[in-house]
Structure formats: C-alpha cells, structure tokens
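User: I'm preparing a small set of examples for a lab meeting where we compare how different chains pack in three dimensions. I only have the primary sequence for this one, and I'd like the structure in token form so I can line it up with the others. Please keep the answer compact; I'll paste it straight into my notes.
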Amino acid sequence: MSNAATPADWANGLHLTAGPYFLGLYQPSPETKDFWAGVELRELLLKFCAESGNWLHPKRIVCPDCGSDKLEMRRASGRGKVYSFSEVHRAASPAFAKSAPYVIGVVRLEEGVHLFTRIIPGSAPVKIDAPVQVDFRVLELGQLLPVFVVAA
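Assistant: Understood. Below is the structure token output for the 152-residue chain.
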C-alpha cells in the first residue's frame, strides 16, 4: 500500500515481493505435489479426468466439466505454442537482474492446458503462436523448473 503523502520513486524501480517470497515462483501444495515430483524427474505431468477426457492444470482438484474429483497424473507431450508473453528488461528483484532481459509468458499446451512459465528463445524468436517444447532448467534461485524453448 502506498502512502499518498510520499509518492513512490519509480525512477529506480520497485521490488516486487510478497513477504520473504519472490512473486512468480512455485509453492508446492497438496494438489500440486505430484506435479513437482514429476519436475524432479524432468517429466511434465498434468491432471487428467478419465470421466470427461479433459486435461487439467496441476492445481485443479475437480474437473470443471463433470465435477469428478477422480483425477490422475499423466505425462504431457511437453509441446505447445506461445499464447502470450512479455520481455522483462528491469528485473523484479536483484536475484533476476543478471538474467534480464528474459521472457515470461503463458504457453498453451497441446493438451489445452495453459501454463505461466519462462520462455527461452531457441532457434527462433519468441512470438505469439511460436511452437515450444518443455525443458527443465535450474533458474536464478537454484530451483529446477519447467521452461519452454522456442522450436524452429
């Protein structure tokens, strides 16, 4: 919350944190523990509802179409397309400063699930509808995370 009497000094940027946590990093929870276990094995796992045949985001606890809570984890193809992206030139925290500029965005997987992620320019630049493939990399804070690399 800002103090109206003291305007923010935007010239040097503002650090974006939530308490001691940097925004945008994963927070394992009971519904996502299997997803993160897959990441440790370098596998992209998503939830799947056998009743409706829908692939679901790892945080889902029930199928939005049929209401079933009988969801299972399945390996995703790891392929998708860039749905939206932004190139960050001023890092949100000092931990990311050496990586700037970097690209973050939303990838729409072949399975129809959208994931917010780091997007890495590969053999082609990042652009809307560019094909991407999952990769697993240790990023700035030492965590192994799924990222997507632009394919030719």
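A couple of notes for your slides: Residues 25-76 form one domain. The radius of gyration is 18 Å.

User: Perfect, thanks.
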